[in-house]
Amino acid sequence: MSDSIVIDGGIPLRGRIEVRGAKNLATKAMVAALLGDTPSILQDVPQISDVSIVTRMLDAYGVAVTSPEEGVLVLDPSNVERAHFAQIDALAGSSRIPILFCGPLLHRLGEALIPDLGGCRIGDRPIDFHMDALRAFGAIVDKSYEGIRITAPDGLTGANIELPYPSVGATEQVLLTAVRARGVTELKNAAIEPEIMDLIAVLQKMGAIIWMEPNRTIFIEGVETLSGYTHRAIFDRNEAASWASAALATGGDIFVGGAKQQDLMTFLNVFRKVGGAFEVHEDGIRFYHPGGALKPVQVETDVHPGFMTDWQQPLIVALTQAEGVSVVHETVYENRFGFTDALVEMGADIVVHQDGLESVTRRVPRRKLEQAAVITGPTPLHGADVRVPDLRGGFSYLIAALTAEGRSTVTNLGIISRGYEHFVEKLEALGARFELVG
Ligand code: EPU
What we know:
GO molecular function: UDP-N-acetylglucosamine 1-carboxyvinyltransferase activity
Oligomer: single chain
Structural class: alpha+beta
Catalytic activity: phosphoenolpyruvate + UDP-N-acetyl-alpha-D-glucosamine = UDP-N-acetyl-3-O-(1-carboxyvinyl)-alpha-D-glucosamine + phosphate
Keywords: Cell cycle, Cell division, Cell shape, Cell wall biogenesis/degradation, Cytoplasm, Peptidoglycan synthesis, Pyruvate, Transferase
Bound molecules: uridine-diphosphate-2(N-acetylglucosaminyl) butyric acid
Number of helices: 13
Number of strands: 23
CATH architecture of the largest domain: Alpha-beta prism
Strand content: 15-25%
CATH class of the largest domain: Alpha Beta
Distance between the termini: 9 Å
Subcellular location: Cytoplasm
InterPro entries: Enolpyruvate_Tfrase_dom, Enolpyruvate_Tfrase_sf, MurA_subfamily, RNA3'P_cycl/enolpyr_Trfase_a/b, UDP_GlcNAc_COvinyl_MurA
CATH superfamily of the largest domain: Enolpyruvate transferase domain
């Protein structure tokens, strides 16, 4: 695929595109297939590079992954085997998903070798919650030059775990480990994102016993065997919200096929407050700019059911066009406003406060690592040459280039294909004027 795109901006995006299964569910459901004794079938799998990376990791461990038709994966774990170091090492730095192989591999092989992780550079992104949880199940963690080696000589036993923060990945780690551990696991302060609920649905189809109590507590009763599943992945909420912000920023009208209201309620409220309009249909949601001025908002990112950290970057581009001062508080990651530098180069007025901003209207107590971005609009954007820094920031550059007057070049597109399926074809379907180069 080309590495760069030259965009002639200033044209509202209009038309219909489809979103398929969520990156942040499909990749985890693929890992879950390792736990079954029989093949699993996953439907609505997006063609994105994070799926390819997990496919390669599964392949390294002997899981046969085939695709009988587009969007469908059959994952056969009948011949799970130890991986060669070179195969694992080749995946180092490419994704964070491999960390979730730990529990399933410990159950299947008694040990797990995990490459050094990658993923977007949006802060430290430590794995201490994951490792502490695995130790609580009885695993032994060694960090070596090869990566992370985890063993469980006495098998894994259910544990009482309380996460310091409702981490999505650590909750998934516990679920994927506890389902086949001996006894009952109690997980307090769990993440409850819709993708996690969908992963629980996958595991229940496989034979797991999982229930929830109020206040983010999940119980998992370990079972001896699990079988394969057939499952259609939940739609990609982050992609849907990204196209919605693209419609708003460019003054356009986009029907996002496959988007569902229930899982986007928090986003829809903010979208409406900014001045965007939407219509909920059976088969998707129409997002459009109804005319008139956009309004500034105060938003804070949070764990579900709050406003997702992955929604703020595309929204910020739309906020550069709102009349007045908006504030976005980032409370999930400690460094997720780096992408705004390029927007400033394109004419936006954005000031980032690295230590956050106090505000009387705040809903959650201030987190230690939070920052705030103050966006003053409206500011016309002009074309520039920008380089994609991370997945969501990168998509926001596409929106900024589409909104801007004049020509922009966006390079390092490979990162965007980690999480946005066929985004070039979708831009074409929406009437964007561009050319791929490189
Ligand atoms: N954290 C720790 N220690 C840990 C794990 C997390 O301190 O061991 C901290 C993180 O540094 C962060 C916070 O906890 O400050 C939340 O991280 P979380 O574990 O919830 O995030 P994640 O599982 O690594 C997933 C998504 C992200 C999404 C977040 C939040 C995947 C593959 N990634 O990351 O998606 O932003 O949850 O919802 O599911 C993206 O799609 O672009 C993306 C980055």
